[in-house]
Each structure stands twice: as C-alpha cells, then as structure tokens.
C-alpha cells in the first residue's frame, strides 16, 4: 500500500498537483491572480513540474540520470519561485511600513539569487551524468530551501504577532501552508538522518505527499471561501520600534539619491 507506484502513492502525487492547476485557473477566472501573483505562478509551476516528472517516472525508456537532471533543475526553479512568493508575503504583511517592506522584499529576493548562483557554480563544476551527485545536491538544495522557507515563515508569524500586524486571511493561509509543508519535510529528513529509517522511507515519502494534499485543500479554503474581514481596533496603539525602523529606513532611502 505504501510502496512507490502503489494506488495510494499515485493518487497522492497526482491529486494535489491537479488541484493546484484547478485552483490557479479559478484564481485567474476571479481576477485574484493579480493580487496573488507569486502564488499563482507557484501553483502553475507545481502543476507543470508534475506534468513533466510524472510521465518521466513511468516511462521505462527514461534513464534515472535524465530524470534526476530534470528534477534537480525543477528544485532550483522551485526555490527561486518560493523566494519571490515569500517576498510578496513579507511585503503584504509589512504593507503599513513601506520602507521595511521594500528592503525586506529585496533581501529575500537577493537571497534567492544567491542560491541560484551557488547552485549554478556547483553544477558547472560537476559531471553532468553523475547520478550520485544529482541525488545528493537535489536533496541538499531542497533541504536548504525548506530550512530558509520555514525560518522566514516563522519569522513572519512571530514578528506579526509581536508587532500586532494585521494579516490578510488569504495571505495568512498561503503562508501557513508553506510553513506546514516545510516543517513536515524537515521532520521527515531529520528522522531519516538520525534513525536511518530505510525500511520506513516509503512511509515518510507518503507523509510528505499527504501533507501536500492537505495543504492544497487548505489553500482552497483560505483563497476561495469568503473570509471575515478583521476590524481594526479604535484604540491607537503606542508607536513601536517597527515604526521607528521604518521611518529611519525611509530617511536613508530618501538620502541615497541625493548623494548619487
């Protein structure tokens, strides 16, 4: 039941990606793709990634090296798209502080660019048909991606709660789903690394696939079901350090063109 290419395995790989394609189409039809451009691109990428990798996995004539090469490249693209998506989430959460949102978005995107450059350098220095290298680097890149993504999501939730920032319910749902996916993947990798659960490796893969399925259904709820709009408190909150940082950043950003 939990073996690769079992009925359950096939379903959990196929269903979430098809659901993401349908969700992206609904977002386009409702005009929400403009508001959530990063997530819209991410949803279509996941669907296209599956449409390429799934047949390659089933066709006997496709070699393992060819499959791993495409998989490695797809992980790299996924990392870049995720950094862009999280930068948009960051900008939305800190939307009331324009300077902080601008700087944070740039830092996150530059982090994604650094990841791309580093991966390209390693790829250029390695033999293209090295199966072991493709497997190890794909795993390392994916682990690094989920570590950074999970860390950024936790930072957003903690800072949002600490500074009492108002979340858009749809943005909250997107961020929550990404955080859950990242944490579950990291947990399964930790189990493999510390307990050497080779026999239960298939079960851990099923856990990751099932988590993706649950997260996609959760995104349907947050993005398509009308959410209650939170009313802002009429009591003015005291100025916090976040406002001070934002003001100082605005001053620095305004001064920079004057010195050029």
Automatic annotation (TrEMBL):
Write out the transmembrane intervals.
6-27, 39-58, 70-94, 106-124, 144-165, 172-191, 203-223
Q: Which UniProt keywords apply?
A: Membrane, Transmembrane, Transmembrane helix
* Protein name (record): Uncharacterized protein
Species source reads Candidatus Sulfotelmatobacter kueseliae
């Amino acid at each position: 039941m939990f073996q690769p290419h079992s009925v359950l395995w096939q379903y959990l790989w196929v269903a979430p990606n098809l659901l993401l394609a349908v969700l992206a189409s609904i977002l386009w039809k409702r005009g929400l793709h403009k508001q959530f451009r990063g997530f819209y691109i991410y949803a279509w990428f996941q669907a296209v990634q599956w449409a390429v990798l799934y047949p390659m996995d089933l066709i006997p004539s496709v070699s393992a090296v060819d499959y791993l090469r495409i998989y490695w490249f797809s992980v790299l693209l996924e990392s870049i798209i995720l950094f862009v998506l999280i930068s948009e989430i960051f900008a939305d959460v800190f939307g009331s502080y324009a300077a902080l949102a601008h700087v944070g978005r740039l830092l996150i995107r530059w982090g994604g660019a650094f990841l791309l450059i580093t991966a390209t350098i390693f790829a250029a220095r390695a033999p293209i048909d090295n199966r072991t290298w493709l497997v190890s680097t794909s795993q390392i890149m994916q682990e690094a991606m989920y570590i950074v993504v999970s860390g950024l999501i936790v930072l957003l939730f903690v800072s949002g709660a600490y500074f009492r920032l108002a979340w858009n319910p749809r943005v909250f749902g997107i961020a929550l789903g990404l955080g859950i996916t990242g944490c579950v993947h990291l947990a399964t990798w930790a189990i493999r690394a510390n307990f050497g659960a080779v026999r239960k490796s298939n079960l851990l893969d099923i856990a990751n696939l099932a988590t993706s399925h649950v997260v996609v259904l959760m995104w349907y709820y947050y993005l398509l079901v009308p959410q209650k709009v939170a009313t802002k408190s009429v009591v003015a909150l005291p100025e916090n350090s976040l406002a001070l940082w934002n003001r100082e950043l605005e001053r620095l950003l305004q001064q920079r063109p004057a010195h050029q």
